[in-house]
Specification:
This protein has 161 residues and is mostly helical. 18% of the residues lie in helices and 0% in strands.
Length: 161
């Protein structure tokens, strides 16, 4: 039993030294990266994340506690330096995955209108998204007075107003 315990301590020490040498040499080799199953971390690498260097998210060889939310890397001032949400982005929550996928950030695949902050016209202005057509009735009311995001064309309005 003592031999197994001593052997285990020696093996653990050797593995620790190997890891330190690996980190000191610039990180994991391509073979190590290919053999590592990132799915086991609870953050599977999908879409554009598959081709990103490990060091982009795991700065200074730190693996535990790496960001798991988009804004952890895709935000101005982060160590990862990933593309941040542009200033022209519609006002929204930081739940990027509700509109975007890792396959391609742009264009957004869907828009979860519950995550958008501000009124309809802040996006539906004819530039960011389709706006009010020229044939629309003249009104100063907000869009949601007559329309819903679930069924835009099925309008409900009070003719007396």
């Amino acid at each position: 039993m003592k031999f197994n315990s001593a052997l285990r301590r020696t093996w653990t020490a050797l593995m620790g030294i190997a890891c330190l040498l690996l980190l000191a040499s610039g990180g994991a080799t391509a073979a190590t990266r290919i053999n590592f199953d990132h799915f086991t971390t609870g953050f599977p690498l999908t879409g554009a994340h598959k081709g990103v260097d490990c060091e982009s998210c795991h700065n200074r060889g730190v693996f535990k506690g790496a960001p798991t939310k988009c804004s952890g890397c895709h935000k101005a001032g982060t160590l990862a330096g990933a593309t941040a949400k542009p200033r022209s982005h519609i006002l929204s929550s930081d739940s990027c995955e509700l509109c975007h996928t890792t396959a391609a950030w742009s264009p957004a695949i869907t828009v979860d209108h519950d995550e958008v902050k501000g009124g309809c016209a802040s996006c539906h202005n004819g530039t960011t998204a389709t706006g009010k057509p020229a044939t629309h009735i003249a009104t100063s009311s907000s869009c949601d007075t007559c329309h819903t995001t679930r069924n835009w064309t099925d309008t409900h309005f009070d003719h007396s107003r």
